[in-house]
Write a structure and sequence with these properties.
Elements lengths: L1 H6 L9 H15 L2 H11 L4 H23 L5 E3 L1 H11 L7 H20 L2 H7 L3 H23 L2 E4 L3 E4 L5 H18 L5 H15 L28 H7 L2 H25 L13 H18 L4 E3 L3 H6 L6 H12 L4 H4 L4 H15 L11 H17 L2 H18 L8 H16 L1
Antiparallel strand pairs: 1-4, 2-3
Helix pairs in contact: 2-15, 3-4, 3-5, 4-13, 4-15, 5-12, 6-11, 6-12, 6-13, 8-12, 8-17, 8-18, 8-19, 9-10, 9-17, 10-17, 12-19, 12-20, 18-19, 19-20
């Protein structure tokens, strides 16, 4: 155990086994919904639901293990929701391509990621992001996470007149979620360890006792016929990709995941105190980017859309997670889901929503590091923050903030704050927006 503690740099990161294991479990609880949501999307793309579920579990476990062992980052990696929606409801929808063809496009985008990583281009892009915008990404992610939590809890709902409105407070779910927010917050104020997981479990048990959530069907607890993604493994149709034309598909996949994942990694690593405020450099980010690029290629081979860092990892970080033990614990728990898929449904969305809302509040603390007195920086930061939740997309908020930053600096003769990489990134964002 001492060797592992040294390998994962426990002393350097001021952490311990109890904290890391608790954080890993908390992260799993907040991310495990992907086992239900992603396969359902892939089934709409024509994949077999059980095969898609097994593929998602293996892809998540592999990508998270890689992030933990290679990068030592407290970030859980799984097939991205936005990429899955693009994969299922556009590439395999209006474009009329098969899921096998779409997987080939995912693999090609992974190769591009890998080349951008080993040539240090991705690192150059991240270094080109101004420090104020990096902090704005943290705050924007916090708003986005809280927005997701409020939505999952039913505390806010869609409204045809006002777009969003207060949910039905006569229902038990939003009230239980609100109770969870208060309970977790109170425990954190009192510095009770494990506040997140205590709150999530308390709301889950209360929901079961009140009959708000159904008990799992124990009779169905059996291992699937196959524990490996044999039906989706290496089912890549490269011929159809090249016959159709790969530029639009691969460019969109690459751009969306590149900046969505980049924004998430920046935000989470700052939250985990990995940012050097003097240089703007993030400790260990190069290895995290390498792990991410390999995971992207593996996603296509295993049978899922691109794996990406999950913003819900912020719950694990808020619980004290600082090392790769977090994604490793989550990976092991995901693999156990192969034997007990019904148990994944025990923790309801309104219980994990409580933790997400609290995490958003914690991430708001980074707003004090943004220089709003300089409006050429403050306005792009504001656009980054507000458009992430309102467009329901990390990359979009990042892009709008970045483009406005470059234009404002040019219009106010502050060219010294720009460099060629910054301008090229803004141009790439503009091209991506036009191609959507």
């Amino acid at each position: 155990m001492q060797f592992l503690a040294q390998f994962f740099k426990f002393e350097e990161k001021n952490t311990n086994w109890r904290r890391e294991l608790m954080a890993g479990f908390t992260g799993f609880v907040t991310v495990c919904y992907v086992v239900l949501v992603i396969p359902a999307m892939l089934a709409d793309a024509g994949m077999n639901l059980q095969a898609a579920t097994i593929a998602v579990i293996w892809a998540t476990a592999f990508a998270s293990l890689l992030m933990g062992l290679v990068a030592n980052f407290p970030v859980i990696v799984a097939p991205g929701l936005g990429i899955c929606a693009f994969f299922s409801y556009y590439v395999c929808g209006p474009m009329g391509l098969s899921w096998q063809t779409a997987l080939a496009a995912v693999f090609i985008s992974g190769v591009i990621f890998f080349l951008l990583t080993v040539t240090k281009i991705r690192q150059l892009i991240i270094d080109a992001v101004p420090t104020d915008i990096k902090h704005a990404i943290v705050v924007g992610l916090g708003c986005f996470i809280s927005f997701i939590g409020l939505k999952n809890a039913g505390l806010i709902v869609a409204d045809p007149s006002t777009f969003v409105a207060l949910g039905n407070l006569h229902k038990a779910e939003p009230l239980l979620a609100a109770l969870g927010v208060l309970l977790i917050s109170a425990l954190m104020v009192r510095r009770i360890k494990g506040a997140m997981i205590i709150g999530i479990l308390a709301v889950t048990v209360l929901g079961l006792l009140l009959g708000v959530s159904p008990l799992p069907d124990l009779s169905t607890l059996s291992a699937p016929s196959s524990l490996t993604p044999s039906e989706t493994f290496f089912e890549l149709d490269f011929n159809s990709v090249f016959a159709y034309g790969i530029v639009t598909i691969v460019f969109t996949l690459t751009m969306v995941d590149l900046f969505d994942n980049m924004g998430t990694l920046i935000g989470l690593s700052i939250r985990a105190n990995m940012l050097d405020h003097k240089t703007g450099h993030i400790e260990g980010l190069e290895k995290a980017l390498f792990s991410d690029s390999v995971a992207t290629m593996a996603s296509g081979v295993i049978g899922t859309p691109t794996c990406t860092s999950y913003i819900e990892s912020a719950a694990a970080i808020a619980e004290g997670g600082r090392t790769g033990i977090v994604p490793i614990v989550s990976a092991i728990l995901f693999l156990l889901c192969l034997f007990a898929l019904p148990f994944v449904t025990v923790v309801p969305a309104y219980a994990t929503a409580s933790a997400l809302i609290v995490v958003g509040g914690l991430m708001m603390q980074s707003v004090v590091h943004i220089n709003f007195k300089d409006f050429s920086t403050g306005m792009p930061a504001f656009l980054t923050i507000i458009t992430m939740p309102l467009t329901f997309n990390v990359a979009t908020g990042f892009g709008l903030g970045f483009i406005s930053y470059v234009f404002l600096k040019l219009l106010t003769n502050q060219n010294k704050d720009l460099n060629i990489v910054t301008i090229l990134v803004a141009l790439a964002f503009g091209i991506n927006f036009m191609m959507r």
